[in-house]
Design brief:
By secondary structure, the chain is an all-alpha fold. It has a single domain, classed as Orthogonal Bundle (Arc Repressor Mutant, subunit A). 72% of the residues lie in helices and 0% in strands. The chain has six helices and no strands. It has helices at residues 4-23, 27-38, 42-60, 66-73, 78-89, 93-99. The longest helix has 20 residues, at 4-23. The N and C termini lie far apart (39 Å).
């Protein structure tokens, strides 16, 4: 089995490649236009959407295990999810759970 990030990148690259094809633009031009409109490259945007799905699921089911939330959101394994969570949120999933945000997407400092 290949690494989680390779699996995710393969799926993202395929989906992004299809969008590029449908757009009629070159790959480079599509990415430039996408970045200009969103501030992120397509792969970064897809990564944020996947993370957002986890946070949204957590808000509705805070007792659910992280691994289940991660798999439902499209992560291929918990290790990849943990790396993304730390990189995006600046804390581990367990630290986020302990912070017990009163409102989803906001954590007390």
């Amino acid at each position: 089995m290949s690494s989680a990030s390779a699996n995710d990148n393969d799926g993202q690259a395929g989906a992004i490649g299809e969008l590029v094809k449908q757009s009629g633009y070159s790959h480079r031009r599509f990415i430039a236009l996408f970045r200009g409109m969103t501030g992120l490259a397509p792969k970064q945007y897809a990564r944020m959407l996947r993370f957002d799905r986890v946070i949204g699921q957590f808000a509705t089911a805070p007792a659910q295990r992280w691994v289940e939330l991660a798999l439902q959101a499209g992560y291929s394994d918990q290790a990849h999810f943990n790396r993304d969570f730390l990189a995006i949120a600046g804390m581990s999933p367990q630290a986020y759970r302990r912070a017990a945000p009163a409102s989803s997407r906001h954590v007390r400092i």
